[in-house]
Amino acid sequence: MKKLVLLFGLVVLAAAAWGADWAVDVAPNAGGKPEGTDSTLELKWDTGTRGLGMAWYTGAGSWVGNDFDISTVSSYFGISTIRMYTSSTWPNNSWEGMRYAVFAFTGGVPGSMLWPASGVGRFYRPDNGSGWVWVDVTVGWTLSTGVNVFCAASEQYYNYPTCDPFGLDNNPTFFNHSWQRYGGSWAPMNGYESYPYKNLMLRVTVCDDANRVSPSSMGRIKALYQ
Questions:
Q1: What is the DSSP string of the chain?
Q2: Which of 61, 82, 66 is nearest to 169 (CA)?
Q3: Distance CA 181, CA 196 (A)
Q4: How many CB atoms within 10 Å of residue 134?
Q5: HSE on the CB side for 58, CA within 13 Å?
Q6: Would you give per-residue pLDDT tens digits along the chain (226 residues)?
Q7: Burial code of 5-19, b = ≥16 C-beta within 10 A, e = fewer?
Q8: Residue 116, preceding bond cis, omega within 30 degrees?
């Protein structure tokens, strides 16, 4: 089990003492649910309320992601955005940016990168906002015919503390759809041992507007992902 550095306000325990791979922010959540979203169009596994903020000590090659199944969406027009819950206030009061990508999901685990075609995640750095906010990454990409399951993910890219964190929600029930990749291999999200939160706050929007989702699909999306 991974050991972590724990942040209570301004008190930080040294990384060397824990042999940690992660830094953790367990301060009270400073933000609520995102504004301007339509839950009938978003696929998600989180509650919208942060339980933990986390960051890898080594950001390059360190990924977190969620797997999603769009087989219930009868009118599918592609992945339009990836939405990530992150912060400009911890750990360094600055936006640094992350890389984002879509991976294949075969054999029950994330596989090769599908988007971007270059095989390198698309970099995105927010340029405004403060505190806990959602950031949108435009994808505009369609899965191959017959492919219904994928993993949308984010690479931290920069090393702690000059980085942006990822958020885990406040639901103690793990849905087994959140993943981490550290050291070259994918594994289910570990979370932090003193807190049960493991559901990654990363979502995808699979169409541009409500008119492009068939009415019969809307309720099925809500039932699966809320």
A1: ---EEEEETTEE--HHHHT-SEEEE-SPP---SPSS--TTTEE-SS-SSEEEEEEESS-TT-EEEEEEE-TT-SS---EEEEEEEEESSSSSSS---EEEEEEEEETTEEEEEEESTTSSPEEE---S--SEEEEEEEEEE-PPTT--EEEEEEE--SPTTSS--EEEES-SS--S-EEEE-SS-EEE---BTTB----B-EEEE-SSSGGGS-HHHHHHHHHHH-
A2: 66
A3: 19
A4: 20
A5: 10
A6: 333 333 333 223 323 223 358 899 987 665 555 544 444 468 999 999 999 999 999 999 999 999 999 887 766 668 889 999 999 999 999 999 999 999 999 999 999 999 999 999 999 999 887 778 888 899 988 888 888 899 999 999 999 999 999 999 999 999 999 999 988 899 999 988 889 999 999 999 886 444 343 333 333 333 333 3
A7: bbbeeeeeeebeeee
A8: yes
Cα 112 to Cα 103: distance, rounded to the nearest angstrom: 6
Residue with tokens 């920069």: 158
Give pLDDT, residue 220: 36
CA distances from 181 to 116, 169, 185 (A): 18, 19, 5
Q: Please report the pLDDT score of residue 31 as a whole number.
A: 55
Which one-letter amino acid corresponds to residue 169? D
